[in-house]
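Quick one:
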Amino acid sequence: MKQKKYSIWIVEDDPLFRESLEALIEVQSNLELTLSVQSVEDALSSFLTCKSPDVILHDIGLPGKSGIEAIPYYKKEFPEVLIIMLTIFEEDERVFESIKAGADGYLLKRTTGEQLIKGIREVLSGGAAMSPGIAKKVMEMLIHGGPKKESSLTPRETEVLRLLVEGLTMDMISAKLEISSGTVDSHIKNIYRKLQVHNRAEVVSKAIKDRLI
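Output:
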């Protein structure tokens, strides 16, 4: 049986870093580099001519339209696309703006090649790739932000939501809480229904904006 290849786009204006990403993707047996450009504008102009992406590796800070501004365009054109934002500094406030915009992962540019590939595989398996420093900042934001909104989630659903925000996959949540994957799946479906969201990026964004955990 032929192995599925996932289409990867790179949007990065630093030529040396972009080339290192290209080289990294090209040696992965189940990843296929289908677009590599230096600006959002170049990416948008490729919508009709290039293979649809499964994952986009995207610089946050770009000349012209920013990576954050581009997220809604990608999500509208490719509703299932997974977007991993790349940033130099973990304290970059734009990380939180990208979360609110619907990004699926957030990695530091100094992340090793092995960790970056692991991050891609995590988002493809339903997780949320996040450098440890950024994950810590996200949780601090939730803890020390403004007043929480009231939630209809049960204590267990809130616990599962916290782990989703931390980037754990369904299997990882199952192991951590010592419950079956089916039970985790049921909790996640209830969370999505109650919060009126449809995917992990939306639920993380809503948890951040409404301080649900």
